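Components:
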Amino acid sequence: MTEKYRNYLAGYAFLLPWLIGFFALTLGPIVASFYLSFTRYDLLTSPQWIGTKNYVDMFTDDYRLKDSIWVTIKYVFLSVPVRLSFALAIAMLLNQGLRLLNLYRTIYYIPSLLGGSVAISVLWKQVFDKEGVFNQGLGLFGIDGPAWISNPHYAIYSLIGLSVWQFGAVMIIFLAGLKQIPVELYEAATVDGAGKFRKFAKITLPLLTPVIFFNLTITLIQSFQTFTKAFIISGGNGGPINSTLLYSLYLYIKGFTFLDMGYASAMAWVLLLIIAVFTGLLFLSSRYWVFYSDGGK
Amino acid sequence: MTIRNNTKSLLLHAFILGFGLLMLYPVLWLISSSLKPTTMIFTDKSLWPSVITFEHYSDGWSGLRNIQFGRFFLNSIFICVVAIIGVVVSSAMAAFAFARIDFPLKKLWFAVMLGTIMLPGHVTLIPQYIIFHQVNWVDTFLPLTVPKFFAEAFYVFLIVQFIRGIPRELDESAKIDGCGWFMLFMRIILPLCAPALITTAIFTFMGTWDDFFGQLIYLSDIKKFTVPLGLRLFLDSSGNSNWGAVFAMSVLSIVPSLIVFFAGQRYFTQGIATSGLKG
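Structure:
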């Protein structure tokens, strides 16, 4: 056996675990999921081919799904921009060559570290209760806050608040991005008499667009898949009146409570499509607003 | 002039610290409430409890339905340890192949692997569940651990980037000394990419410890419950009557994440800053 073939063999030997996983746990299931989305399947009897009925039902028959999509869109389109702006503001606040930067970064990162846990969702349920800490805080300013969790008009905002609170990871990426911007640019701008706002609008923001784009894409994809917060805060049912029924939660209910595996598979494909459309639009738009200082190479 | 600057900088530091503490307030409130007697949790507004009690901790730790909370911790820790070993070993292997060995279709596989990073888990969820259901693995730890031995694309990418920074001359000299690929991997590459492996281990720990969704669909026997599942059951069954114990167990449930975070902070922030995908 020649050296070349020994290398081929070694390459595939090291790659084997990933390859098996790719076929058995990713590609195979993708194909199966597509097939199942055209069937009725409850795990106990074998799948029954029903054509496009699941998809047709989704858009003509399922009012809970309509609520769920609306709630999810609201959640994503409010929480993502607010979380990103908040993270950028904090990153800029910290990026002033401060001593103790490490300490501050740690403090501001902790919410992000813990935010996805059941413990914090449990806490959130209490903090945003009618008599909770948040309303007590508002009370100091003479504001009588509503019951954030149990009022269907406000429940989604407690989820959005929790999502914004987890700004730490995005902030760290922004901080790394801000450090890449050459100081000389700001110095030159100062010499030319530019004020703080001009420097932000003409230097910081344009040079940060690749990082903003990156954060936007990742946060968008993640947000569409949010589950734990909605599950814990609503007690697993997406209530009150579907007001916290995020898409993933409804998919879980359909698939694992009603054991409607075919319908849940169809929902998964629609989610994939929704995410693909939004990330696709983001990528298409990027050529108009994302600025690469190396010309995008 | 310097006095003015000093005041300004002092104010800035005070603001950053104050606002940071405001952000941490819910967590501090959680810790403080877990130490207050039940009657004072919602009446005593000060963050520093005037009476400190550990009754909620012993109360909560005794668990429910004859299962101690410690059991949930052991289950979670077991799943995490196995998951870390699986992800680190298999991802490092794949990364080594991509970064150092030439073989046919390498570019294709690498592109396919990167593509799977973006794929939402929902699309594979149902068939995976059906597979594990058919081999009778549901309600065991196997669906939560075995898949971790097949490498995770994001970490493969992270380690590939790291290995590419290791000079190839090391490979050449090792080969002259008679090292095969396996020895090269074990003796040279693995030790040198320890930082990337530690980052992988830390992120895997965080992801597995808080993987509420996976644990929720695969585990149903309370003896096999993990910390997040135990906490949720605890919330549902004692709920409004026993917030103190729920808070106490909530505090305990975030302690491991905090320990791992503070122990590996350097790797953590580097990992997020350089590739920024998780978290």
